[in-house]
Each structure stands twice: as structure tokens, then as C-alpha cells.
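This section describes the prediction task in plain terms. A model, or a person checking by hand, is given the sequence of a single protein chain and must write out its three-dimensional structure as a string of C-alpha cells. No templates, partner chains or ligands are provided. The sample shown here is typical of the held-out split.
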Amino acid sequence: MPLITLDNISLNFSEKPILNEVNATILKGDKIALIGRNGEGKSSFMRVLAGAIEPDDGKVKIKNGIKISYLEQTPPEDNDKNLFDIVAEGLGDIGEILTQYQQLMTEEKLDEAAQLQEQIDQLDGWQHLHKIETLLNRFTLNPKVILSTLSGGWRRRVMLARALIQEPNVLLLDEPTNHMDITAILDLEKMLKDYHGTLVLISHDRAFIAGIVNKVFDLDRGNLAVFECGYDDYVKRKQNLLNSEDLANKRFDKKLAQEEVWIRQGIKARRTRNEGRVRALEGMRQSFVGRRQTQGKIKIHSVAEDEKRASKLVFELKKINYSIADLQLVKDFSMLVLKGEKIGIIGGNGSGKSTFIKLLLDELQPTSGTIRRSKTIKLAYFDQMREMLEPNMKAMDFVSGGSDHINIGGKSKHIIGYLRQFLFTGKQAMAPIKMFSGGEKNRLMLAKILSQPANLLVLDEPTNDLDVETLELLEEMLVDYTGTLILISHDRTFLNNVVGSTVVMDGDGVINQYAGGYDDYLLQKQTDLNNKDSLKSKPKQQKKTGSNSSKKLTYKEQQMLNQLPKKIETTEAKIGKIQLQLSDPEFFQQPESQEALIRLARLEADLERYFEQWNALE
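The expected answer:
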């Protein structure tokens, strides 16, 4: 059943076509991902669906009685209302009455509250009061808290609750996972999977999209293509279409070149030329000029500098603790960070991720314990809240500091040419930052950060608002990056593709480090839980068999015990080989020395774990 029909919709901003005679139908039960590069107009398209802006041409037909709820990309920051009032606003008039009733009850104005009770009874409003309380509990929101005091992730939860309280037929979500922690993202993913209404979703989180949608709207250079499939199949089909388009363009360009040669023949040829062919050539020229080229790929330079002089040890943390009043954010944590390591940091909102970064960077001091830092650190820091951006500053001035040229890897480069590598046109480079979309602002931040000579990159949620293609290019750059990377992210796919180890802020100051990305962390955590369960059951079994008899190993445990001596022997041999290499001072001048140090640290950790397993099984 069609709920929304788009009939030849066109929309232009500053002569740029955002929607070019778009036709599409949104059916009941559709769960649609709206995909497109930054600046293509995804948010504008969503606002057309929501009725927030009118198209320049065409019609948006909405079925009678259909309720549409819209979560905007940027939640309000200066709202001083409490969370109950904000969620209740989604109900319209009855929500306003319930807000007044709650306020009067809080102020103990019982007579005035009693008058409102009659209105609420007549409107059958008590059920709505229950819905508000249920939804606040589901999102773990305190109804008395003021919105402006919350972080970005919590504000998004509030606005999402406000959108859902309306029980819409069509739910429009623009980047709902921005600044949310992984636990909240997984909870939202489950909720949207179970959602019985129609959904249109913009998100940069590939794992999130893939788990929800059954249809993809692809917005590309003003045109909308509809893919009746899930996200993974869409990626394959889209690549095939781009390949076909590229081949067609090459054939067209070859034909155009041949015609240009013909038109430039001698005077005799021009006298006898075919006028119809001339007119066809003019048409080809216009088509070539009017062709909206696909944007190029970002070429990001490695920003590591003076690698041979950089210290092999970047950070050494020994039993550090950090508390704010009675809240302990770091408890007895030790960690070694070597040059070239790529470390991801995950944890719930408020678990202390940003505090942990500040401790590393000497912006905060631990309550106890020590942090040893390399004296050769050159830092480049990406701020998730874009606090460095000045709205009225030109993009090129923000990146270059006002100069026409910028030094990249020891070579001078014109700032407009450099920004083109980050998909900005010359016109955009000279435009004020306030004209940019959220994703374009993030790209601009990355352009500035990655122009700086640095051997330590600290990226705090760099993936927010970026389109998928830019994300994949950023992944490639970070994998090739030779310096040290510390990355805070809630994007599971991004973590899996980039980091070599994951630091998990488990809450109450407890921090654990796991080898690999997010999926590796989940596997290791489950193994640890299984081992703990096994150890807990061990005393009970010994009690049953008596003090003179020992517990019998299971077949799996016996196999593990049999394999341990070989594992220990092999690991010790590998450690000995690396230690022999490291005993040669000239070895440290070679690029592979940093990999050897990282490998040595991992092997020593493995060896310690093997001995612990041996002791437990023995």
C-alpha cells in the first residue's frame, strides 16, 4: 500500500540540482536506507518527505491519515526544558496538558491539578502518560533532567523518544546513531528491526544499516535510484552500475574526440561537411559540459614525520587511577602503547573515554599511578564536537591558516588543489563553513588534521556524518598510516577494519584491553566468561569427589592441556628470535623494527596467558 508518492520532484539550492525530477513510492512496511555522498542533499530530501520544505517542482502525495515523525540530524543544544516535557511535546495538545499537570503536581498545586484531571479523563490522556513514562524508561532517561545538560548521544535518545511517542506510520531518521555508544546502537537496531511502521533512514553505520533495511534509495548527482534489496546486495549492484557508467562515458569521450578531429579538417572538408553531423557534435559538446562527473577519491597523505627519530615507546601506563568526587573513571589500569600501534577505545556514554584521552595527553593528571610519555610526540587531534570550526571563516582559510599554499610532506601545494583531494570544489573552498553539511564539516576537519606533521593521531568519533565512500577511503588511509593511532568510535565495521587492539571502558573504572577489533573483542570476552564459569564450578566438583581425589578434566580441557607445551615452546622460540634481532642496534634503523616491538609485546602477553592456563588446568 503506497503511503508517500513522489511525482517528478525537483529541488535546487544555489543553482545546484539536489533532486532532478525524482519519482518514487514509499510502501507500507518499507525499511529504506537513503544513501548518498555528503552534500548530495540527503537531509534536504528527508525534509521534503517530512513536509519541512516544499520542492521547486512536482508533487509529494501523502495518503490521508498518515502520521509522519521526523528526527533531524542535529538535536537542539540550548533547550532548557526537562526530558518529560520534550517527549510529551510529540503528542501535541494532550502532551501540553500532561506537562502542565506534572508541573502542578510537582509544585503541589493540587486544586489546579484536579481541574486538569477532568480534561485528561475526557481526552483519555492517562494512557499517553503511561506511554511517556514507558518510553523514558526504555531509553533510560531521567524525566527531570534538563536537555541542554546532556551529551550529544543522550540528546539524540531524547529526540528519538519524542519522535516515537507519536506512534507514526512513517518514521524518518537522519543519522540517529551519531554520538551514541555501541550498546545504545545495538538496542536501537533491535528496536527498528521490530518496528512495524515504515522507516526511512540516513546513517553512516554500515553494520547498523545492513541489519535493518530491505530497500535502498540511492541519491546520486540529483537522480534517485531504487534498489529493491538489502544493503549488502545494494553495494554489489551499485558498483556494477558505476562500472557500466564509466564504460559508457569512455565510449562517448572517444566518439567526441573523433568528431572534434573531423570538424577541424581543412577548408575543403569544411565546405562539404554534413550540417546534421555538425549539429550532432554541438549536442555532444553540450552533453559533455553538462555531465555531472562522479567525485574523485580522497588522496590523504601520510602525516607521520621523522619516523626514525620517533621513540619506540609512546605511552606507558602503570596502575593509574582517576576519580571525580565519588565517581571512579579509571581503576588500577596499566597499558603499553608502542609506536605504530592502532588502538580503538569503546565504552558507554559517560564511561570516561574522553577523560582517558586527556590523561594520556597530559591534560589531566591521574589520582595515583604513573604515565610515561614519549618526548617525540607530535599530535594531531580530531575533536568530535567540531569546536575548532568558526562558521564565518572560509574553508580554505580554516585549513591553511590564511595562506594560499600549504606544506604537505615537505612540498608546497595550493590550498584549493589540496582541498580538491577531499572532494571540495574551488567554489566550496572559498565558501564560509556555515554553508556546509555535517559530513562536509567533518571532511574539512580531516583535511586540516591530516595536513599537520604528526606521529600520533587521536580521532574522537571521526565517522559521524561521513558518507560510506569517504569512510572507506579514511579506513584505507589509517591502515597505511605509519604513526600511532588512538581512535574513539562506535562504528563496529570501522573498528574491525582499522584497529589492532581494543580498549573497553566497562564502567566503574574497569578497563580491559583485547587484541583485534570489535568482533574480536566480543569473541575474547565470551571466552573469558566461559573460563570464569569453569573456574567457579571447580570448587563445587572437588567437594563432591572429596579432598583426596582431584577433578577430572573434560576431553576439551585435556586436549588444551596437551597442546599447551607446544604452544609455549613455539612462543618462546619466536620471542628469542625477536630478542636476538633487537640486540643489534642497527636493527632499530630499519622500518620493520616497530612491527617487531609490537609483535614481541603480543607474544609475551600470549606466553603469560599460556602459563596461566597451564596452572589452571594442572
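For orientation: The mean pLDDT is 82.
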